[in-house]
Amino acid sequence: MSDWKQSLHKTRYVMDVLLLIGFMLVSAPQATGLPGHEWLSVLFIVPFAVHLLLHWDWIKQSAKRFTQHISAKERFSLVWNYLLYVMMLLATVSGFLVSVALLPTLNIELHIQDFWSKIHHDSATLIMPIIGVHLALHWRWIVNLTKRMRMKGAKV
Ligand code: HEM
Ligand code: HEM
To answer: Which of 43, 64, 80, 136 is at a distance of 20 to 30 A from 111, taking alpha carbons?
Structure first.
């Protein structure tokens, strides 16, 4: 594999590990406390945006791919990634709308509505199995990369 492709895979791998750790922290407000949860969720936007940027080519082509003749697995993956994106957006936006620490610290007062609490709870709960399937769809890549990253000096 050419050098730039090899380092792109390594970069994606390291960033995916950070993203997963970040996601696990963000998904456990009981462990981090609500203020910790809110600040970590804001920080989490960074590895999430990097993840999307590292797949920018895929994103740019995704709408066109949808109309092309592709395998059922690829089509499923397309729809799934869009679903994942919508859920992340819902969880993040609703998170801000139920903020009890971050926005008040910034002197922004909000009247918290039950509707947004429910959306936040439901979207955050749904994201977990959706990410589980997202990872399962890339399982072979994850196993291969993990093996190769552990072999010192090996080509990825
Ligand atoms: C905990 C969160 C996530 C983890 C651990 C994760 C992990 C992965 C892995 C392992 C891959 C394949 C390897 C690679 O090329 O990097 C991948 C691909 C991809 N992910 Fe994620 N991902 C996460 C969240 C998301 C979210 C929220 C989106 C939003 C749309 C997303 C969109 C994509 C896209 C577009 C690709 C490339 C296309 C594909 O092959 O499906 N990921 N992700
Ligand atoms: C990807 C982003 C996020 C995920 C996955 C996430 C996940 C969660 C989870 C799992 C809960 C517990 C829900 C429950 O048991 O009812 C929760 C609660 C909470 N989250 Fe988030 N969250 C995210 C973003 C945010 C953001 C950006 C904020 C605010 C800046 C925030 C503020 C809160 C608050 C105030 C609660 C407790 C109140 C409530 O559930 O209505 N979250 N979040």
So the answer is: 43
